[in-house]
Design goal:
Layout lengths: L7 H4 L18 H12 L3 H23 L9 H8 L1 H33 L3 H15 L4 H11 L4 H6 L9 H20 L8 H9 L4 H29 L3 H6 L9 H11 L4 H29 L4
Length: 306
């Protein structure tokens, strides 16, 4: 006796598939993921520990000393004391003026120098880069001694030329000393940006009958301006934080007042309390953070041409 023929519905596959459904994938254990995370961050742990020990913890201590009052509690009393002190106000004003002037002069001298060096042949460019590296890294007490021996009251150039240079402890003398290493540093910072301005852009501008002035006004300056602004910010921040060469040149009682010198004198004498040094240090931190944020914005705008 033959078995009954399957129905048309079964033959056409209308009935649902009776095959067992696959089991849901089990949730992965968090341990392998944690192991990969540890393996990825393990090489950076020494650097993170170094940053925590020498950057984060000192910054937290400075913030605590800035707002902690001797009578107890926290407030702006220490900040108000620094603002009311005419010497501190003069130091802040001189530091900001010195940083802005140095950054501007470095840009005025450094941009043309970087452009000329970037267009040199390999041998000439290597020679100038070596000189710029040496000058940018020659600072501190050695530079102060060289400046005194060169343009001081009994310096070599002072006697040879018969010219009275600004006193090395004055605002003008400190500016001359700072230019020695700030201009080469600005050149080294902006030299890679000169490669962004391509030669074929100038050739295309010539095809369109554009003059050199039109090329620089519409293409060259807009492209290089963000890089120049970024270098300006770095030189400004670097200048207001220098201490060694300033201490060697302008540490006398009648010398120029700067933030770093006021911090150093406070730590040496502690007559006014360490809160004064903490407030001025936090001010430098704020300036550095603001300059870094503006630098990142300038670089982000500049890299759109890359």
């Amino acid at each position: 006796m033959t078995s009954p023929a399957p129905s048309r519905a079964v033959a056409e596959g209308a009935l649902p598939d009776r095959a067992p459904r696959p089991r849901a994938a089990s949730r992965p254990s968090p341990l392998p993921r944690f192991g990969r995370l540890v393996a990825d961050w393990l090489p950076a742990l020494p650097l993170l520990a170094f940053a925590l020990l020498l950057l984060v913890l000192p910054a937290a201590r400075l913030l605590n000393d800035t707002f902690a009052l001797r009578a107890g509690g926290y407030g702006l009393g220490n900040v108000q004391k620094v603002i009311d002190n005419p010497v501190d106000r003069e130091a802040i004003r001189n530091s900001l003026s010195l940083g802005a002037l140095q950054a501007t002069l470095s840009a005025l001298f450094g941009v043309p120098a970087a452009w000329l060096i970037s267009r040199m042949r390999v041998a000439g460019r290597a020679t100038w880069l070596a000189l710029m590296n040496v000058a940018a890294n020659f600072a501190g007490i050695g530079l102060a001694f060289a400046m005194v021996a060169l343009i001081g009251s009994t310096g070599m150039l002072t006697h040879l030329l018969g010219v009275s240079f600004p006193a090395t402890s004055s605002f003008g003398g400190v500016n001359i000393a700072y230019l020695y290493f700030n201009v080469p540093m600005f050149v080294l910072l902006t030299l890679p940006a000169m490669a962004v301005l391509r030669d074929d852009w100038w050739e295309a501008a010539q095809v369109c009958h554009a003059t050199r002035w039109q090329f620089w006004r519409r293409i060259g300056v807009p492209v290089l301006a963000p890089f120049t602004a970024a270098g300006w910010l770095l030189i400004f921040t670097w200048t207001i934080g220098i201490y060694a060469v300033t201490y060697a040149l302008a540490s006398g009682p009648q010398s120029v007042k700067l933030i770093t010198l006021q911090i150093g004198s406070t730590l040496e004498s502690s007559v006014f309390g360490l809160e004064r040094a903490a407030v001025l240090s936090v001010l430098l931190m704020i300036l550095a953070v603001v300059s870094t944020v503006l630098y990142r914005l300038a670089i982000r705008r500049a890299t759109r041409w890359l």
